Amino acid sequence: MGLIEQSCCFTGHRPNRLPWLGDRADFRTQALTEALWGRIQASYEAGYTRFLSGMALGVDLLCAELVLRLREESNGGAELIPVLPYPGQADRWKQEERRRYREILQACQNSIVVVSPCYFKTCYLQRNRYLVDHTAKIIGVYDGKPVGGTYQTLEYARQKGLEMELLMPE
Q1: How far is CA 149 from CA 8, 12, 70, 129, 166, in A?
Q2: Which of 113, 124, 144, 150 is deepest in the core (most CB within 10 A)?
Q3: Rounded to whole angstroms, how far apart are CA atoms 153 and 133?
C-alpha cells in the first residue's frame, strides 16, 4: 500500500455548531469521543496508519488528540500529521485551546504540513483540499446541513471517491 492508501483525514464542525463540544464532561462530548475513538481504532486495524488533521477547533483537535493516544497505545504505529492552513491559525484562540494545539504540534514536530506561509481568503479551503488529496478515507462529524467547510470538504471527498465514515452529532 502507498502512503495515500494508508492515510485517513478528519473533518467536522467547530464548537459554534456543536456548542457542547467545549465541555469535555458533557455526555454528548463523551459519546462523540467514544464513537470517534472506535472509528479511529477500526481504521488503524484496517491498515490506516497515517492520520491527517486540519487542527481546527472542535472535531479536528479532538481527533488529533485521539490519534496521539492511538500512537502511544500502538507503540508508534500510528502517525499524526497536522495540516495547518497557515502558521497563525491558533493566534486568536482562547488560552486553553492554544495550549492543546501547541501540545499536539509539539508531539508531531517532524510531520507538520503548512499549506500557506500567511493567511489568505481561501487558505482554509486549500487546507481542506490538501487533506482530501492526500488520503484515501475521511472520518467526519456532520450535522447534515449543506453549508460550511465540513460540507464543502465532504463534497470534495465524494468527488474524489474517498471512503467515508460519517457520524451525526446528537
Answers
A1: 18, 8, 26, 11, 15
A2: 150
A3: 11
Q: Is the pTM of this model over 0.90?
A: yes
The candidate with the shortest Cα–Cα distance to 168, out of 143, 149, 147, 146, is: 143
**pLDDT at position 22 over 90:** no
Q: Grid coordinates 482562547 are at which residue?
A: 94
Task: Give the Cα separation of 103 and 135 in Å (integer).
Answer: 24
Cell numbers describing residue 122? 481561501
Which amino acid makes up residue 36?
L
Helices within 57-148 (DSSP H only): 59-73, 95-107, 123-133
Q: Which amino acid does the sequence have at 46?
A: A
Q: What is the pLDDT of residues 84-107, one digit of tens each?
A: 999 999 999 999 999 999 999 999
pLDDT tens digits for range 31-84: 999 999 999 999 999 999 999 999 999 999 999 999 999 999 999 999 999 999
Q: What are the start-end ranges of the E strands in 17-88? A: 50-53, 79-84
- Cell triple for 44: 488503524
